[in-house]
Amino acid sequence: MSTSQTKYPKFLDADFEKDISGRITPRDGPIVLRNPHIDDLAEDVLYHLDLSDKKNDLPAMFGDVKFVCFGGSPKRMEKFAHFMVKELNINIQAGMTLSNISHGSDRYVLYKVGPVLSVSHGMGIPSMSIVFHEVLKLLYHACCKDVKLFRLGTSGGLGLEPGTVVITDAAVDGLLRPYMEVATLGMLLQHPAFLDRDLCEELQAIGSADTSYNTVIGKTMCTYDFYEGQARLDGAFCDFTVEDKLAFLKRIHDRGVLNIEMESLCFAAMAHRAAVKSAIICCTIVDRLQSDQISASHEMLEDWQGRCQQIVAKYIRRHLNIQ
Amino acid sequence: MSTSQTKYPKFLDADFEKDISGRITPRDGPIVLRNPHIDDLAEDVLYHLDLSDKKNDLPAMFGDVKFVCFGGSPKRMEKFAHFMVKELNINIQAGMTLSNISHGSDRYVLYKVGPVLSVSHGMGIPSMSIVFHEVLKLLYHACCKDVKLFRLGTSGGLGLEPGTVVITDAAVDGLLRPYMEVATLGMLLQHPAFLDRDLCEELQAIGSADTSYNTVIGKTMCTYDFYEGQARLDGAFCDFTVEDKLAFLKRIHDRGVLNIEMESLCFAAMAHRAAVKSAIICCTIVDRLQSDQISASHEMLEDWQGRCQQIVAKYIRRHLNIQ
After folding, report:
1. pLDDT score recorded for residue A28
2. What is the CATH number of the domain that holds A267?
3. Binding residue per annotation — A211?
4. For residues B76 and B154, is the Cβ–Cβ distance under 8 A?
5. Which of B2, B41, B189, B224 to mutate: most A Cβ within 10 Å?
6. How many domains does chain A have?
7. Which chain B residues are Cβ-neighbours of A295 within 8 angstroms?
8. Is the CB of residue A264 less than 8 Å from the CB of residue A156?
9. Tens digit of pLDDT for each residue in B2-46?
10. What residues make up the domain containing B201?
């Protein structure tokens, strides 16, 4: 590491202060890492993906990747990968099937279907953060270009019929702050969480073609806690009343928050910091102005989650010119 | 919920301010929920565990539980459950095996071996928080008594030989603050993260009987990010030098931090808030003063993780009077 001693990043966060005003726009082109130390590593072990830039030929394995789709649940992302096989008319030889590339790690699943990666991120910002760091390094080592990132998720809606699809134009934390704070070497650094407006609108147009449900664009609140953090009365702890809860949810709804989940702030902040075009598309599975608990049937939940998958699949087909 | 309108918790957090001084000590006895609304719910769906207090007879299923062991990886917690079958001399009928009670959820695994639950918590505070809320409600609905909670984990050590076992006496965040902050209805509430000193010392005594490795008690830093948050130079982003990194790690080491991981603050804060006796026992898998990357072999990692499992198993056997 001695060679790193005088190395500073190509971009310091100071240069990125203008992010706060959203003036840095995500771009196409090669993936750039804002870390000058990576190229000095004898080996870069992507520990939680069970991959390495020395043990694996990452350019050969992943060089053609153009779309990375993240979702919380490993089973759901495995199903999404099989769904994309059909959507992209991928021909899988007899006796073959998709294999979880990260099976050695037990932390995340990683499937590749042509130019599409399907990755699980687990629940919450830290779990999303680990896999995002490693996927970004994977795309860098593989020399990928013109990559777009999607998070497909579930969320609690505000004043929306369950099953509504929400596309996030900005993520905010539990105090409505539009950035992710990362305690870094004793400083609380703030990373703004903006998303690509054009991508939002293109996805909304695709979703709106299906009139059996609504597809809307709005603010997403991202919390570190599913119960108290989302004003639920049904956690193991609660020191507020139903009136306190409803007053809070109405207050954030009045300020443009359409849904609440647990990863958008990290996904948006890291994608923006890496200047990669990305979008967050979540179905709502409960109206939090009506209820805390998720009572929809398993079949209903599957159907709602399928809506986000179909919208992203249509987007990918269009950009690959697949009829 | 109208019956909740005037309900306030049996304990308000205000009463618990004295937690800050650690004066509230965890106690044996029945699990108490600091949430007056739970008893008003027509049904309490433990969504991420795929259980419900109406659809499942929780007292019959879980009433005898005395020890809950949490760990990050689902596969590891499945292996731990099978390990406890042997340790507790549990007789499993021919043709039977352990079954993941939460298999319907795909978020966490939950195994029961006599009075022991083996639960995965995923990675990071939010993922730990969700399962902790729901396990605590499970223990409450099941009328469990005298329960002890353990987190068995892996961590990066500071100045310790990899394979050392660290038992946490206090958890701190990335700024050395000994509490977890939860944004709750627009307020940042602070929940102190203390652990039971007697339990720490009993576990250390058990670990110290094996002189092939060291078992130490100390402070654990809990971060929201694995890379920058833990002063690693090998993430997708890095704007500090190797000297900055080492200066920070030495500074926190000088203040008593022995290891760094991603769940202890939440586990300690929620267990303390619930006044349940609990302990955090992690092996170190890398010395962060020497390296960022985890290069130990799979076999070595398995061996190190087995140390924590054996210590907790010996503790449980002792308290169940199993020779």
Report:
1. 86
2. 3.40.50.1580
3. no
4. no
5. B224
6. 1
7. 45
8. no
9. 444 445 444 444 444 444 444 567 888 899 899 999 999 999 999
10. 3-319
